[in-house]
Known about the structure:
Keywords: Signal. This protein is of the alpha+beta class. The chain is 22% helix and 32% strand.
Amino acid sequence: MVRLRKLVLAAFLAASLSAVNVYASSAVPAQEPETQEAQSEQQGQVKLFKATYSENNSEASIPQIDGMKDTALQDTINNTLKISIIPPNTSLKGDFEVTFYSPKLLGIHFQGVTSSSEGSQPSNIDKTVHIDLTTGKLYKLEDLFKPVDFERTIKKICLTNDSKLRITNTSPSIQWTYEDFSETWNKETGSFVLLSDSIIVYSVQPEGLRGYKIPYAELKSVINRNGALWKILQEGTVNIS
């Protein structure tokens, strides 16, 4: 079994999201067990583990799964996870956290530093992935909502509840306004994290992350309650504490 290794990226993490604060209400704790298991009648005993990626002088941990009865689906999911995180032809250093984990859905948040060639200027990388463990489908933000202008609704909620819903950064020196977020986040390219009771919407900037943690209850008018993604979220997460 692949041994876990914590990769410390102090310079990047100093300007990053505080996962302990942001994920506090999620059923998935911000911890790093060697394996995490979800029982599924169709999948068998599925295990989630951290694999070390070392190509191109990389030092990164990426999520992989094992134990599926459908090995073809398992290979598809593992390959999708890999290519969703790792930019081609780059050296990567980083680690991920589990943000949602159930027999049907895996959510991860990867943060790190990447460089395309020796001597090139490193750049921060921040990616979230939400993948259906029964089909291999990658979920987009629009999969959660009705075919309406949900971006406008999200931004209105953020503006109205600015101080209450804004996420906490690790560095108190980082200052940003609602306008900073609104100008840099949109429904097509904006980052998001799905939790068991809320969604985090944020944009990634050189000085840090800007965004908000919105309870699903605030978005009930635009959430597609008949959609597959919403139904999976309602089934809850696996307790991995």
